[in-house]
């Protein structure tokens, strides 16, 4: 089972991207499940583009031991129920994707179970609100970018090309090792590059 953890702020386009990616994997014959830690702007329901997708929502408010336990328990329940080939995890904006990955690794080790196959950590950025988020939610924004292996500059159709360049430069200053991709969910520009980055 490959686990794909997609972080980012609410309204950054995570849920829409998961829909598109989930559709791709389902069409390829993969069983897909989704674990959501906050209600997104798009409902990822059980019937995703005509494919049966198991969805579970974890509704803890912040990063606590209870949240970590809830996520690991929910993953175990989804695995038992759906036996997915692909599991998407969408943490809420205040939960580090790295924390989620490390907790799942730890849980697998403790339980002596099969180790999970993790895709690179991805963070989605809404290009139209990036600089506002840097100003108002600086720590969370920096934390998300610093732990990410892939940063997707999403909704690039809403800003000028020079703004996209400025955001990319800012992201690479925060995390020089990150792979930065540009995308718009409007017409799925960049979807193939995102898929490639998942391995």
TrEMBL record:
Gene3D superfamilies: P-loop containing nucleotide triphosphate hydrolases. InterPro entries: CobW/HypB/UreG_nucleotide-bd, P-loop_NTPase, Zinc-reg_GTPase_activator. PANTHER family: COBW DOMAIN-CONTAINING PROTEIN, COBW-RELATED. Pfam families: cobW. It comes from Methanolapillus africanus. This is Metal chaperone YciC. GO terms for cellular component: cytoplasm. Residues 3-180 form the CobW/HypB/UreG nucleotide-binding domain. Transmembrane segments: none annotated.
